[in-house]
Queue: 2 jobs
Job 1
Amino acid sequence: MNYDFRNNTDFKEILRQQEKRILRRTIEGIQETSTFKQFYLSLISYLRKSAFFDFKVLLINKQDLENLSSGNCINKLFAILDSDDCVHNNYVVLNNELNIVDKIYNNNYQNSNSARRIYAELSHDFVVFLLQPNAIVTYFIDGEDFGENIFFTMEDYRSYEEKKSIDRICELFEDYRQRLKSRDVYNKFFVSKSHLLSLKTDMGSQLDDKKYIYDNKQLLENKPEDKFREDLRFFLSEKLKANFLSKEYILENFKRLDIFILDESGYELYLIEVKWVGISINPSGKKTGTSYSERDIVPNAVKQTVGYLRQLFDEQKNIKLGYLAVFDARKEDLPDTGNSINNLCFENEDAIHFRKFRKIADFRVLNEHPA
């Protein structure tokens, strides 16, 4: 890209094409008038002085806004915003006397994107002011919005506020342990009771049905890592103030990362490698298949995750931490799969990256009530 803007003809052409739009927004826009500024600052003042925790839309056409009646605008505006009509409705139309000429309660917007499109469309006929918590006012003029807010509905705002920042991810790991105790969650990882009975016939077992089901209740579905990974990803995406990159991030050497997280600042990266121990059913469904034990975690999975950290560093990514999450579906109640990690020795190249490695205590997955 040519950064010599003075001699950059492409950049000059962009400026020429956008000249009218830029001038309208910066010089000729109604937002530069004294009446607009007075009205806008009065709204900010009201929000700062009031116990306001809502999303409310005020609409006023340009002519009325330009011709606001003289007098104590701020007091009248405060009285209108405190009135029952304004409190009970989330869309209020005002005139130049700051009287309510129309009002409606409508809470049908599904998300911020749809609300934003509606406000932008309305702003061709009105100047639209969106009042929000934390004394934020976003306004829309001629199809464009002004302000830094990213939420346009209470539902999206609350959903975001309830989420935790990335530095509290370990709290979420503990919350996830509780999620795994829910029958609706753990049930999907294991072979069903009816399938176990079919497997009993295929395997020629002489055990009675009840005993066979009990002895094999911890048998996992084929390729359980996919279900474990996606369940953990879904949970974290609902609880974290962060962005989750594509389902499996591919490194430059074509290795795939299970869960790749970009924090809310947009600069710091975290990875979670997902493994499991236990026994899964064969793809045919007629016999047992893959089996993994703690020997597959230490050293193999640990070194694999540390290798990813090294690769991301080599790719000049700002990788902060790498987590290893192990789902323990073993029949026996055995020690954590990471107990022997401290005995591992890394060569110098990997040792410095091991400092960013974190082993999450195993996620114990028990099929308490086989379906």
Job 2
Amino acid sequence: MNLQELSAKPKLIKITIDDESIVEKYGEAVEFWMHDRHSMDTFMQMANVKENNLASIASLVRDIVLNEKGDKILADGETLPSDILMKVITKVVDSLGNSNSQTTKK
């Protein structure tokens, strides 16, 4: 297979947080979008985050978490509730580690 066949522009994918505790607290599942693939810079930033440095992870998530139009959700000075932020971080990390959505033909 030619490597060029695997290259593509990132596409938006919807991520849903539907944990029982989140649905119970907020009344419904919470959704956000992110790209299905990211640059090597993004992966390296994530890899270089120290294990307990949530501030660095939260900063990186700020750039990755988007709305359905592909715009960043959080403006300067805005933040998410801590319970949602932790779930978003988990979903982003899980998605970054999942190469299936990028290379599997449907």
